[in-house]
Amino acid sequence: MAKLTTEQLLEQFADLTLVELSDFVKAFEEKFDVTAAAPVAAAGAGGAGPAEEVEEKDSFDVVLEAAGDKKIQVIKAVRELTSLGLGEAKAVVDGAPKAVLEGANKETADKAKEALEAAGATVTLK
Questions:
Q1: 97: cis peptide before it, omega within 30°?
Q2: What is the pLDDT of residues 76-97, one digit of tens each?
Q3: Fewest Cβ atoms closer than 10 Å to its Cβ: which of 39, 68, 71, 101?
Q4: What single-letter DSSP state applies at residue 95?
Q5: Helix H segments across the chain?
Q6: Rounded to whole angstroms, how far apart are CA atoms 49 and 97?
Q7: Three-state SS at 105
Q8: Are 63 and 100 in contact (CB under 8 A)?
Q9: Cα 85 to Cα 101: distance, rounded to the nearest angstrom
Q10: What is the tally of helices (H) and strands (E) in the chain?
């Protein structure tokens, strides 16, 4: 098997859905016993004081906790917020609790939470 270049790998990943990419990351983490989470700098490193520890969070995960009674409306809301197809959005809703958006800014996360809650879902921001 020919070795793929970084560019070829990126092109392959571009064709994956968010669910497929998430499944790949989990499999990669398990196979190589690593985590894809960004490293967190130790608080106080380099003489940093307590004032730096109160840094405002700028990246949020929108987590669907439960679909509620209006599952179809929640699936529609998930599709509007993501590029997922119908089956993939249904899988996210059926798999709750599940992240709908990851690494979103505060404004985007708040709008997504409002949209999902308006559809009848229970949502948390992490």
A1: yes
A2: 888 888 888 888 888 888 888 8
A3: 39
A4: T
A5: 6-14, 18-32, 71-81, 86-94, 106-118
A6: 36
A7: coil
A8: yes
A9: 15
A10: 5, 3
